[in-house]
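Course assignment 3, question 2. Fill in each field.
Student: A.L.
Task: Predict the tertiary structure for the chain below.
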Amino acid sequence: MSMTTQFQSYNAKQLDSTQRQQLAMKSLSSKRTVTELAKQNNVSRKFVHQQKAKALDAVNDAFETTPEPPEKILFYLPVTATWLCQIILCLVLHCRANHRGVQKVLLDAFDHKMSLGSIHNIVNGAKANAKVINEKQDLRNITLAALDETFHHNKPVLTGVDIHSLYCFLLSSESHRDFDTWATHLLDLEKQGLKPERFFGDDADGIRSAQRYVYPTVPYDLDNFHIIRDMMEMRRFFRNRLKSAITNRETIKAKLKKAKRPDKVEALQEQLQFSNAEEKEMKHLSRTIDTLVSWMQHDVLNMPGLAPTARYELFDFVLDELNQLGKQHPHRIQSVCTSLTNQKYFLLAFTEVLNEKFQVIADKHVFPLEKIWEMCALQRCKHSGDRYAVRSLSLQDYFGDDFDEVEDDVMAGLDSTDRTSSMVENLHSRIKPYFNLRHEIGFGYLELLRFYMNHTPFQRSSKEVRKDKTPAEILTGKPHEHWLEMLGFQRFKKAA
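Answer field:
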């Protein structure tokens, strides 16, 4: 290497940023050649070309069109194996996804392949943890328990719910729903602390016999929902029969107008006579049954209403009238009459409970029990309506300043009393969507589902006590961790 080259290389390193910028600007102007600039600054021609290229790049960058900014990034997510486990459980429980659906979500949204076996193992691990938590729950706070059965692919699923909190204490798929099966579950629940004040359920032999065996001193009230449903189906049947009779009569009349042959006219007239008689009979049956069912539903079995004695008398009257109709047309009516006869005292058991509570209210405020029941009947009216305003006048005059306090106590008594197992029917409606995509719901799946429902807050509720709270929280009166944290996971938290 010559001395000149060494000196030029050394001199280029001594130039600071300002001198290099001036050299680049001079090279961009056409006044001097690159060779002249190199000699003047004792640098190589290559160095001058490099500075010129940097200046040109800077100019191009300054005038380059600004590209569209990318979509705003909300937050970054560290995808770990533990986080994927939580996503899988959320898809299975929140979204009711099957395992193949979970597999496709992971592949499409996260470009991550996972085998069905791995997904199955993750869910299985959660099942085991959920079962342990379910078995540790203390059930002593349950005061009103509802028992029932639903079916999945013709196999019974035994269910049990706390009416107040909607806590599900039983959800089990079984091969049978007989005495032995129910008694086994009730004995296990008794060991877990279940000792309610009353049970509610339908007239199923397996449930009733097992309940009497395990809890001989606890009353079992028949659910009003099922008998009301049967009566409404009977009413709908006779309404449809009336419509069919009217249609049949109109059809025969239309044919009679067009008929010209004497024998045809005579035959149609006989049919018309028969159809008129049938329509008259169906009209009498339909209208009478409408009235009787309305009385039974709104006056006898409705929570706010008459005192027990009046209800029993009206119950007997409705039953007698239905029996008379059953002699005339036994289909549907006779089976309802049999159910009402056998279930009378169980269906009206809630009135005795109310009577005891109202007696306490009467003693507290020193008023006759009859007046407390009149206050109860007033609650059938909408408080903002004119009917309530008119009917409450006499009671306001009677109770005076104690009216509001007595009414509050009566409403509290009504709220704390139940006559149906509708809450267990509500549970059935919530679990049915989880069953639709699955042929098999055993092997611990129902334990996981029960845990999830008991520890997930209600998104909405007509009762203020349930809003944004979980059934377990309402049952125990104590808050608990998020259901994912209860299963041993650490939830993802966005950076502040």
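Instructor remarks: Strands lie at 144-152, 155-162, 168-173, 198-201, 220-222. The radius of gyration is 40 Å.
Grade: pending
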